[in-house]
Amino acid sequence: MEKFVIRGGKPLSGEVNVSGAKNAAVAILPAVLLAEGPCLIENVPAISDIDISKDILAAMGAQVEYITKNTLSIDPTTVLGTDVPYALAKKMRGSYYFIGALLGRYNQVCAALPGGCDFGIRPIDQHLKGFEALGAQVGIEGDIIHVSADQLIGAHVYFDIVSVGATINVMMAAVKAQGVTILENVAKEPHIVDVANFLNSLGADIRGAGTDVIKIHGVEKLGRTEYGIIPDQIEAGTYMVAAAATGGDVLVSGVIPKHLESITANLIRAGAQVTEYDEAVRVQREGPIQKCNIKTLPHPGFPTDMQPQMTTMLTVAEGTSIITEGVWDNRFAYVEELKKLGANVQVDGQVAVVDGVDRLHGGVLRSVDLRAGAAMVIAGLMADGISEIEDIRHIERGYEDIVSKLRDLGADIRRVECVPQKQ
Ligand SMILES: CC(=O)N[C@H]1[C@@H](OP(=O)(O)OP(=O)(O)OC[C@H]2O[C@@H](n3ccc(=O)[nH]c3=O)[C@H](O)[C@@H]2O)O[C@H](CO)[C@@H](O)[C@@H]1O
Ligand SMILES: C=C(OP(=O)(O)O)C(=O)O
Questions:
Q1: How much is the ipTM here?
Q2: Which of 63, 74, 109, 225 has minimal CB crowding within 10 Å?
């Protein structure tokens, strides 16, 4: 077991380069199964969720090889079956994309219900509704799901809830379905567009990704491709908040500023200065952090995956901020950890009331999930004295080289082995 040890109180400064988007990559790797030849995927983030996706592909018989640290060559033509290895699928949320990809490619799949961060119940009923509309039969026994069809037929699907996973999964299943599929009330996150662009680069015919309606003309065959994954909106946002929270001056580079607009707008309201360049944003803060009310919403609203980081920064704002979680039922579990540092936050259901305090002090903190873990790192960077962050495996699911990137910005952070306690 490892932990991060942080001596806080130093403003971050310098430049940090953002890696490829986790939530695009965990969909594009399974989507390669739809290809009919080897694919080269660039800008793949070096994170543990990608190690798992790669292991699933390899266990299923695909030839997977790293060309460089962030470039993967994947040949799906050697895949042997349609069963997704159970133990690997349970380790991550994005494994649900193997269902849509294998259904789209082979008309059948058997997989485990997925793992991932614990925000309460994370249903996949909208994914299943979409598969069934395309003519598939779905069976669930325990936590194993079987989906199969004689032939997928294009259909009109209206999602009852805006879901990132259901939008991408049903889009993947539909690319080779007979006829036209229309998906309505879909999610519009940047990674939806990236997955659609990837599939189109293979020869799919998908239009409208990034709007409320996606139209897919089924094609008979898909080819092969070379494709670069977009930069990670949430990793970029996390460094932006870390810069503002520590009163620093950081150039976050290799980003698409348009994807960061809601984060930028809220940082400016909170007293930071944000300057946009073509492929970078600079975040500076000199004055006090201002209170700020935020509600998380599907894109283009403020992303739920940035909520813990922003709430953490606002613990030292002047005044009271109200944070409303509009996507997940239970995404404030980390607040108990912040209280250990002296933060004054009261949670009532999906609302947190953050009364700003003067300073945070160091302490021992647990990462309860991925972004909560990133928020604990930000808390440690802001706090006086030393903080220890435990359960960092959650953080390493989604942040490439977080320690070296922060050290390059002047942070005093180390990754250390925990010595097991004697009984
Ligand atoms: C691997 C990945 O990309 N994970 C992201 C993805 O998760 P994920 O794809 O699981 O999230 P969804 O967008 O599907 O979930 C949004 C909301 O819809 C509900 N819902 C979803 C599907 C369904 O079939 N039925 C249903 O009721 C969920 O409970 C939740 O309240 O989008 C979330 C929302 O931006 C992010 O927090 C996650 O980081
Ligand atoms: C919640 C997240 O990931 P997952 O859906 O993979 O658990 C996230 O990326 O913040």
A1: 0.99
A2: 63
- Measured in Å, residue 165 CA sits from the centre of ligand 1 at 6
- pLDDT tens-digit readout, 188-225: 999 999 999 999 999 999 999 999 999 999 999 999 99
Return the active site residues. 117
Sheet holding 344-348, edge to edge: 294-295, 320-324, 351-355, 344-348
Domains and CATH numbers, the chain: 2-19+231-417 (3.65.10.10), 22-228 (3.65.10.10)
Q: Is 233 in the pocket of ligand 1 (CB under 6 A)?
A: no
Using one digit for the tens of pLDDT, what is the confidence trace for 321-356? 999 999 999 999 999 999 999 999 999 999 999 999
Pick from 98, 57, 52, 103: nearest CA to 80: 57
